[in-house]
């Protein structure tokens, strides 16, 4: 098997795993509060990342990395996983899974918009048009097909979903200059965010007994979505001869996710969700494609 074929295997495996998480979030939140899901999923994610470091023979390097990078790790860990997943799970708790996951896909565009004030980059016309298309999709989903009426299905849930994209985009922008090795860096983030999550749960009265179904769901979410899948995706990006080929696989995830949401959760997929998701994906494609007069083709 060539490196490119291995990259496709790793990339598709990651996409398939990510396609399950919207359903896993919703099923887990039937037994856990958002804060409890962050806590238990973080524990299982940390264990999976430590296991990966052990398998790579790098576990002994963890103490030295912690001493060197504890400040950055504490700051980034406060964003991801603590704040990001706490807010994302709040969105899933308030919204149908199909709506929360569709809005969450706008994070890539949010990162482009956030790069203007954070990195001083200029906003191109193509990016502006992509934003208009994407956020018209968000509006279609949030109003369930009646964007002109501005009658939101759940304004709080939509607000949490959009805020989560801002946190995720900001995390990756500030992470761009991170000198830590990615798997080690993510492990340190989870390690130093865990006390913060414990304090939050204690302060809000969330340290209570939970059902085994909730623990099982948190184990799946933590080990797969927060941990192992990240390593699969990194491996795919490292092995591929074309980053764009692998990156484009992510567009398979939302449609697969809708099939699972309908099958596992019994949610009827609304026409407004399909229309809005189509607009969001169309906007993301518009942002990526070289269009004469708007953005020069990349070599």
Which secondary structure elements does this structure contain, and how are they paired or packed?
Layout (H helix, E strand, L loop, with lengths): L2 H27 L4 H22 L6 H33 L2 H8 L2 H13 L5 H18 L12 H21 L6 H22 L8 H28 L3 H5 L5 H13 L5 H18 L11
Helix pairs in contact: 1-4, 1-9, 1-11, 2-3, 2-8, 2-9, 3-7, 3-8, 4-7, 4-11, 4-12, 5-6, 5-7, 6-12
Strand content: under 5%
Average pLDDT over all residues: 86
- End-to-end distance, in Å? 27 Å
Overall helicity: over 70%
Low-confidence stretches: none
Count of helices? 12
Tally of discrete structural domains: 1
In angstroms, what is the radius of gyration?
Answer: 19 Å
Helix and strand sequence: HHHHHHHHHHHH
How many beta-strand segments? Answer: 0
Most strands sheet: none
Class inferred from helices and paired strands: mainly alpha
Shape: globular
């Amino acid at each position: 098997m060539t490196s490119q074929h291995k990259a496709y295997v790793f990339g598709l495996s990651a996409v398939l795993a990510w396609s399950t998480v919207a359903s896993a979030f919703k099923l887990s939140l039937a037994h856990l509060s958002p804060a409890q899901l962050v806590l238990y999923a973080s524990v299982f994610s940390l264990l999976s990342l430590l296991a990966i470091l052990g398998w790579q023979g790098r576990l002994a390097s963890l103490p030295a990395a912690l001493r060197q990078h504890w400040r950055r790790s504490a700051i980034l860990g406060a964003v991801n996983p603590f704040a990001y997943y706490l807010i994302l799970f709040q969105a899933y708790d308030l919204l149908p899974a199909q709506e929360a996951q569709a809005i969450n896909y706008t994070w890539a565009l949010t990162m482009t918009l956030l790069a203007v004030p954070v990195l001083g980059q200029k906003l191109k016309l193509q990016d502006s048009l992509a934003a208009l298309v994407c956020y018209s999709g968000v509006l279609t989903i949030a109003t369930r097909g009646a964007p002109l009426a501005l009658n939101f299905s759940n304004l709080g849930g939509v607000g949490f979903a959009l805020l989560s994209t801002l946190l995720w985009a900001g995390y990756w922008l500030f992470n761009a200059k991170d000198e830590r090795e990615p798997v080690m860096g993510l492990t340190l983030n989870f390690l130093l965010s865990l006390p913060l999550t414990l304090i939050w749960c204690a302060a809000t009265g969330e340290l209570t007994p939970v059902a085994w179904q909730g623990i099982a769901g948190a184990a799946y979410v933590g080990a797969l979505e927060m941990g192992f899948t990240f390593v699969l995706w990194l491996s795919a990006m490292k092995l591929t001869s074309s980053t764009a080929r692998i990156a484009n696989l992510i567009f398979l995830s939302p449609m697969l996710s809708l099939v699972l949401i309908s099958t596992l959760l019994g949610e009827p997929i609304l026409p407004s969700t399909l229309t809005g998701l189509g607009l969001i994906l169309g906007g993301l494609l518009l942002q990526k494609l070289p269009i004469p007069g708007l953005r020069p083709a990349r070599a």
